[in-house]
Amino acid sequence: MAQSTQEAEGEQQRRQAVLRERYLSFLQKSADKPATIEMCERTTVTATIKAFQPSSEHVIVGTVAVA
Do you know which InterPro entries this protein is assigned to (predicted)? Predict the structure, then answer.
C-alpha cells in the first residue's frame, strides 16, 4: 500500500514538472507577441507582451492601444 502511495506521489510530481516546463516555455515564447486583453467595463486593449514578472502576477507590455 505504501509503495502505491509513493508511486502516485511520484507520478503527480512528474505531471507537475511537465506542466511547469510547458508554462515556462509559454512565458519564454510569448515575448514580443501581440495580445488582446479584455478588461473590466468591456474595454479591449491590444499590446505587445514584453515580459512577465517573476511571480507571473503581472505582465509587462508595450505598444498599448485601446480598441
Answer: SMN_gemin7
Kindly state the cell numbers that stand for 16.
Answer: 507537475
- Cα-based distances in Å from 8 to 14, 17, 19, 33, 49: 10, 14, 17, 38, 38
Tell me the pLDDT tens digit for each residue of 15-64: 999 999 999 999 889 999 999 999 988 999 999 999 998 888 999 999 99
Residue 59 has a CB neighbour count (10 Å cut-off) of 15
Contact 59, 39 (CB under 8 A): no
3-state secondary structure of 36: strand
What are the phi and psi torsion angles at 51 (to 5°)?
Answer: -170, 170
